[in-house]
């Protein structure tokens, strides 16, 4: 883990955490998001890419990219947030995301599902889903550690981000599209070579005996 962090830190000695390039979602990316059910658009099939997105919408999109199963009623047993009614369209996605550690509420136990969300927060959620949050935390945590890891992984490729900028649906779509083909980082065990055992991680990139695993490969297995 320390070696992985050191390599990433060296890559960022002369780099800013603010990405300055921008583009629109490609037709191929739109097709991906449609086919995997990550973004389905409105009643006319319009993805509304220029619209500002909400926290609930982002949780739903990331949960679908992570292939979260919301078909069971178990996700309705525990409603973790005071401000989400039982009939809210995204309640299953939000509850499961809470159980998985992807999201959390505020100090009053509220989630505020209809609030806008910053790109920083979206990046943190996706980095967590990809398994790289231990690395991001070791590099300074939220937000800069997560931005550094996201940039190194190519997660923010073709995206314009300013500090605390509000995420549009196009921003979220590009982030998720980029995330689909990033090898995830998995926990492989514990290192007992030190006084305090350290969790061991490995990037599932198909090298050194690992299986190649991405969000796309996980989605394809269940299609």
Give a summary of the structure in a few sentences.
This protein has 223 residues and is mostly helical. The chain is built from 9 helices and 2 strands, in the order ααααααααββα. It is globular.
Shape: globular
One letter per element, helices H and strands E, the order comes to HHHHHHHHEEH
Any low-confidence stretches, pLDDT <50, length ≥5?
7-22
Strand content bin: 5-15%
Radius of gyration based on Cα positions: 18 Å
Mean pLDDT: 85
Number of strands: 2
In words, what does this structure look like?
The protein is mainly α and 223 residues long. It has a domain of 119 residues. It contains nine helices and two strands; from the N terminus they run ααααααααββα. A two-stranded antiparallel ribbon has the order 1-2. A hairpin with a 6-residue loop joins β1 and β2. α3 packs across α4 and α5 crosses α7. The longest helix has 11 residues. It is globular and about 45 Å long. The two termini are 33 Å apart. About 7% of the residues have low confidence.
Write the layout of secondary structure elements.
Elements: H1 2-11, H2 27-35, H3 55-65, H4 91-100, H5 119-129, H6 133-138, H7 144-153, H8 169-179, E1 185-191, E2 198-203, H9 215-222
Antiparallel strand pairs: 1-2
Helix pairs in contact: 3-4, 5-7, 5-8
């Amino acid at each position: 883990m320390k070696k992985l962090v050191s390599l990433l830190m060296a890559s960022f000695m002369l780099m800013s955490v603010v990405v300055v390039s921008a583009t629109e979602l490609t037709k191929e990316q739109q097709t991906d998001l449609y086919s995997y059910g990550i973004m389905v658009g409105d009643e006319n099939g319009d993805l509304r890419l220029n619209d500002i997105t909400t926290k609930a919408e982002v949780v739903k999109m990331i949960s679908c990219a992570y292939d979260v199963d919301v078909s069971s009623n178990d996700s309705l047993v525990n409603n973790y947030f005071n401000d989400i009614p039982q009939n809210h369209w995204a309640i299953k996605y939000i509850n499961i995301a809470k159980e998985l550690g992807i999201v959390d509420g505020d100090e009053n136990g509220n989630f505020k599902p209809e609030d806008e969300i910053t790109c920083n927060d979206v990046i943190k959620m996706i980095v967590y889903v990809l398994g790289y949050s231990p690395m991001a935390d070791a590099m300074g945590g939220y937000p800069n550690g997560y931005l550094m890891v996201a940039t190194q992984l190519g997660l923010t490729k073709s995206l314009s981000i300013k500090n605390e900028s509000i995420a549009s649906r196009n921003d979220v779509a590009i982030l998720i599209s980029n995330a689909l083909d990033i090898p995830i980082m998995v926990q492989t065990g514990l290192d007992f070579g030190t006084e305090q055992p350290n969790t061991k991680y490995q990037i599932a990139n198909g090298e050194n005996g690992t299986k190649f695993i991405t969000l796309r490969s996980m989605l394809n297995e269940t299609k």
